[in-house]
Here is the input.
Amino acid sequence: MILEELRTHVLQTAMLLPKYNLVWMAGGTVCARDPQTGYVVVTPSGLDYESLNPDDMTVTDMDMNLIEGRFRPSVALNLWTGFMRARPELNAVVHTHSPYATAFSVVYEQIPVITETMADWFGQPVKVTRYLSVEDPEFSTLPVEVMGDGYAVLLGNHGPITVGKTLEHALERAVTLEEAARTYSIARTISTPVSVTEKQARASFDYYHNRYGQKKP
Ligand SMILES: [Zn+2]
Here is the structure.
């Protein structure tokens, strides 16, 4: 079995999604690229993570050719690898159906930078794509375009995608985005929320990623 360590890491990350209430049952996807081989490890679709082992992960190349694994890669793999093709520094993608972030995808409203933590991890608002079925010709390209140089995008009427250099960073962004969306929803019931300005968000992101502490996402 090749890439055993990365397969294990992908599965462990996937198993954290239900624990953080980001997906239920077999929802969501975790995908990571091995920088050495360029191969991609992805969770099989439609199966409960609790029932899976590392050898159930699917290994493909960046063109979706199956390298190793008993399950066929999902059609959505072209989208997950699309982020990595467009942004070679990215090695991990996490897709969830977390309820508050998904709610914004349903009303087609972007999530502004409303907390310091969101500024640290995203540095900019998180935008929404139009509704895309997997058969849509733009399914694997539009979300990449809408995300641009950001670190998350909401698929319209579907849910969030977060990305990172590592699985830890993509997962932390999935959790942070859901928390920010929840806080924003609560704040709107109290009064009118005030967003972090674009300049403040960029400065906070730059400080966190380039000068602060041990974390260098
Ligand atoms: Zn989904």
